[in-house]
Recover the amino acids of this structure.
């Protein structure tokens, strides 16, 4: 295929997604398969198709942003959140916690957060800011309809209380949906929320280059209040966590150090 560098610039102008921040070999392989699927002979031809066909454009953005999610992914990490970190955050900051679910995909994670927090707080006290770069997954999240596989790890008490079977799918309750404010946000270019007590961003940055990953972790540190918590995926780590102002509490939980 032809010039990938020119293609990256064209994609940025169309989507504001900077492909230079993603691991090239992995991302290029994904993109090339999509270009072939659309029977385009070159990146240039594919860019023209992206500009002219809204369906192809939507498909491309969805494919690019790697939306893989499920409720209570790695349940033991959520148990730790409920048992240790939520009580600790309430003790430090009170009951009006400012929590950001970054790169939230189809809403599984922020809705899981609401349910986890509800073990200690009334739903009327819970407000999660949930963001993602992809408009379509945000729309899906707002609908709140999930497969049986997606909710497999949800504790039974919450399945009974907050989900209704609709055909072969499960609809999450309005009570839970009201606790989440969904917004569009690009982790690589948009301003970050400030004064967060907890940030959850799991299994997303593994696709980023080391430079982009470190930049995001540094920005997260600036967004957290002293003593705030960053919750990441089980396959991820903040390599220079001390240099960025974190203390490592567990391999997937980091605390913003007191200044």
């Amino acid at each position: 295929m032809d010039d990938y560098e020119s293609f990256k610039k064209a994609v940025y102008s169309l989507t504001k997604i900077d492909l230079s921040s993603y691991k090239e070999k992995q991302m290029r392989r994904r993109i090339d398969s999509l270009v072939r699927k659309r029977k385009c002979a070159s990146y240039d031809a594919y860019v023209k198709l992206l500009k002219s066909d809204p369906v192809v454009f939507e498909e491309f953005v969805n494919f690019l942003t790697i939306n893989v999610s499920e409720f209570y992914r790695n349940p033991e990490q959520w148990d730790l959140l409920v048992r240790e970190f939520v009580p600790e955050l309430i003790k430090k900051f009170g009951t009006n916690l400012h929590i950001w679910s970054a790169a939230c995909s189809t809403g599984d994670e922020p809705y899981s957060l609401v349910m986890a927090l509800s073990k200690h707080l009334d739903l009327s006290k819970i407000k999660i800011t949930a963001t993602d770069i992809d408009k379509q997954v945000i729309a899906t999240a707002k609908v709140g309809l999930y497969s049986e596989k997606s909710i497999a790890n949800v504790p039974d008490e919450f399945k009974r209380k907050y989900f209704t079977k609709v055909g072969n799918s499960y609809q999450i309750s309005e009570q839970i949906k009201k606790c989440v404010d969904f917004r569009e946000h690009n982790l690589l270019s948009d301003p970050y929320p400030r004064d967060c007590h907890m940030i959850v961003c799991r299994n997303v940055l593994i696709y980023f280059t080391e430079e982009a990953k470190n930049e995001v972790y540094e920005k997260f540190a600036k967004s957290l209040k002293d003593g705030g918590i960053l919750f990441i995926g089980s396959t991820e780590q903040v390599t220079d966590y001390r240099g960025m102002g974190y203390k490592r509490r567990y391999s997937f939980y980091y605390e913003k150090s007191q200044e």
The chain has a mean pLDDT of 91. The first strand starts at residue 99 and ends at 101. The first helix runs from residue 4 to 15. The chain is about 40% helix and 20% strand.
